[in-house]
Design goal:
heterodimer; A: mainly alpha; two-stranded antiparallel ribbon; 4 strands; B: mainly alpha; ABC transporter involved in vitamin B12 uptake, BtuC; two-stranded antiparallel sheet; 17 helices; about 5% strand; globular; disordered C terminus
Chain lengths: ~350, ~400
Amino acid sequence: MDAIILQILNGLDKGSAYALIALGLTLIFGTLGVVNFAHGALFMIGAFCAVTLSRILTISHTIVDETQKDFLGNPLKVDVPYVYDWFGEATGNVIIDWAVPLSILFAIPVMILIGVIMERGLIKHFYKRPHADQILVTFGLAIVLQEVIKYFYGANPIPTPAPDAFRGSFDFGLMLGFDANQIIYPYWRLVYFAFAAVIIGAVFAFLQFTTFGMVVRAGMADRETVGLLGINIDKRFTIMFGLAAAVAGLAGVMYTPINSPNYHMGMDFLVLSFVVVVVGGMGSLPGAVLAGFLLGILESFASMGAVIDLLPGINQIIIYLVAIIILLTRPRGLMGRKGVMED
Amino acid sequence: MLGLSKKDLNLLFIVFVLTMCAPFILNPFPEGSAMAQFNAGYPDLMQRFVIFGIFAIGFNILFGLTGYLSFGHAAFLGVGSYSAVWMFKLLSMNVIPAIVLSVMVAGLFSVLIGYISLRRSGIYFSILTLAFAQMSFALAYSVLTPVTGGETGLQLALNDPRILDGAASSAGNIPVPGLFGLEMRDSTFLRLGDWVFTFNVGYYFSAVIMLLSFYLAIRIFRSPFGMMLRAIKSNQQRMNYTGLNPKPYTLAAFVISGMYAGLAGGLMAAMDPLAGAERMFWTASGEVVLMTILGGVGTLIGPVLGAGLIKYMENIISKINSEILHGWFAFMPDGIEDFMVAIVYPFIGKGWHLTLGIVFMLVVIFLPGGLVEGGQRIARMFRRKKTTQDNTPGTTEPAE
């Protein structure tokens, strides 16, 4: 029992990442009808927003500290981040410690900007071209973005720790009446799950309860008619693209403490997220979220010792296996809409 | 001749001449000169040109003719490599049985994957092939370690049975792949003044196979079967209505291109007898997509050009470092020199992928037909100029 609960919990954080990326992909596909292979790169750029902010916060100037001596007896030179000068040492430390959560504020405008530039500058010209062309050009864009990041940040993963307060683990077992240390779970992964839930909820609420969201949903259903009603649907779809980029970016920002960002993390997630989208059903937002969590949990169950003993290697292929079965038995995916890319 | 039209025959002849003279053409700069680093005439790289040429030709039969974009073609290449190495381990170091086996195994594997994946089309087909290839990669990397060698890859060993050849060569080393006594790695050198030209057995062997597969591809392109494949690309529904079932044709194209990939994989193992799972990774599949698109999808010569271009960039451009750049711009004043180096540096050396990505995007955006279309456009521009010159003021045009 405890093992099962633990695997479900383990699946939740990976599933949250899949769900967030797949949600963004589906937003883009459902609104603009574009298959965006550069979405993984957006996730990666989000993660590097966190890296950038924590670097900016620790920009320092050197001062000579008379109170400390080095081993030769000379006054020690100390690097003092500018944040200390502005906010005092205690507050400054807290700010640096909380760099990753703070990056959310930094990442949202950056990602929306990148998304809008991408859509207006490149993707706009590909609406009328076949899906294969869209895949190819965004694939090329993903390579370019990845290489640019590699040029500036190097090829090695950059550790970006979570705030101190979340660094420990949480003993779930005690809460449910198990013995201590039976089910322990890092705090940050809980935070990630909660964060993903909030973002997903916010996106759905935005689409469901605002006028803007209503227009976008109408545009997803029938773009032409909405255009004929005198609504500038292109502008709204561009904003949705920026929003989708921001969702992917935020997923990346919060993922940095779980997995140190490197330049090809986007590609690794992209393949899986595409599988998630297809399993959930092209163009179905709830489907993408559901499939994301489902596959994340399935993957963590497949990596249980008992399962691996039974079927060696299953943890590596389970997602693809499920995708193949679903694609062949349910052509529209789990919750796909009728008439959306059915062939 | 050979059942080809005059135009195709000319193309085949040009490719024949180019591949046969490649050691000269690719080595235009004398040894030791500043430009010698642009020489691509060394065996390893020339072999890669033709082997990836075969891979891309095969991929083009599927993607160029039927329009099915497979993102998992590297799996067949990997399977071909593994089976070739196994043949070297078990039977003989002769490359012929190894290559035959790798083509056959890749063919069988592609029947299996193709039969399932081709039940869907469009992006779903891409995802399905991607999923299968990633599965093969993951399995080869982990569970199938006894068969594939796992992380270290599959290598020859001294205690392999090798029924026909005996385990070790006369010198007691691991024998090298060969063709009836001709070792694949043998080279003869021709020295002409400062120039050194290398003629490598493995390269010529692969080049002959490449020419054969190129010829086969031309025949497929011009055959009624090729026509059917084009029909699948342009309108499958209409094909259905005329009473033709597209499925068997698509599957045949898939299997043929899978066998081409297996052939390329077998050749890779024949040139260097080891095989690793990373050959099956999806970025390797992406690479062949890049090659085909860059060169010109659906054209005969395009994929070969694309493969050559990418492999050239990978091996030559990536070797340029900042010192060489400083050497190039040394004639400029110091400040401008540093500035130029700073601008160019991100695009070369380790950053060659960036150049590749940018070029690829530009090609997809502006030249959907790839380099071949670019060449045709330039040619047409010149021809148009000629025709305008021919229009001397005396001739009159029909008024329309």
